[in-house]
Design brief:
alpha/beta; 7-stranded mixed beta sheet; 191 residues; Rossmann fold
Length: 191
């Protein structure tokens, strides 16, 4: 039994990929390739993950769906791409597990072209004071048992990384699931 059934996320994934702009796209944390059915055919997609086993499963899914995807091992905290490479970067349920999420988001910003977008679908800490405190208490146990953090403040982390948050959409479960749309500035701020 899945704790969070994938059926619930299918419409969310479809919505996220409908928002992606440009032709050069990076998906970080591709996992087993659950987003692959939603990849627009006109995009050139580079998909990375930390583990060879996950990449093998994603490659098999892409092959079965006849999707042309460039897969490679990679860590969002140390991307091996030049600056200003991608029009968009996408991550679904990734930044709850990245050891240093702000570092990973700074790396996304670095590899995005000026004006490029970052689209994140993730669960975040509730803004409800009681629920948020409860998530904080449970987080060490959840991390130990399942891996991901349940109390990340991802919207704030996107801002800390220097991306401009354009829109945050509540996807359900009392505001715990968010679709975050952010963008790299066209020109860096002069200081």
């Amino acid at each position: 039994m899945e704790i969070l059934p994938e059926r619930r996320y299918a419409s969310w994934r479809k919505r996220l990929w409908a928002l992606v702009e440009g032709t050069q796209v990076l998906e970080v944390g591709v996992g087993t390739g659950k987003n692959i059915p939603y990849y627009p055919s006109e995009m050139s997609i580079r998909a990375i993950d930390l583990t060879p086993g996950m990449l093998a499963r994603a490659q098999a899914r892409a092959c079965a769906l006849e999707k042309d995807v460039d897969f490679c091992l990679g860590d969002v905290q140390a991307l091996e791409f030049p600056e200003n490479t991608f029009n968009a970067a996408v991550a679904t349920f990734v930044f709850c597990s990245v050891p240093d999420p702000v570092l990973g988001l700074r790396e996304l910003k670095r590899v995005l072209k000026p004006g490029g977008q970052a689209l994140l679908l993730d669960h975040v800490r509730s803004t409800n004071a009681v629920m948020g405190a409860f998530m904080d208490v449970l987080d060490p146990l959840v991390v130990r048992l399942m891996g991901p953090h349940i109390n990340r403040r991802t919207v704030e982390n996107v801002q800390k990384a220097g991306l401009t948050v354009e829109h945050v959409e509540d996807m359900g479960m009392g505001g715990i699931f968010k679709l975050i749309q952010a963008r790299k500035e066209l020109k860096p701020n002069a200081t």
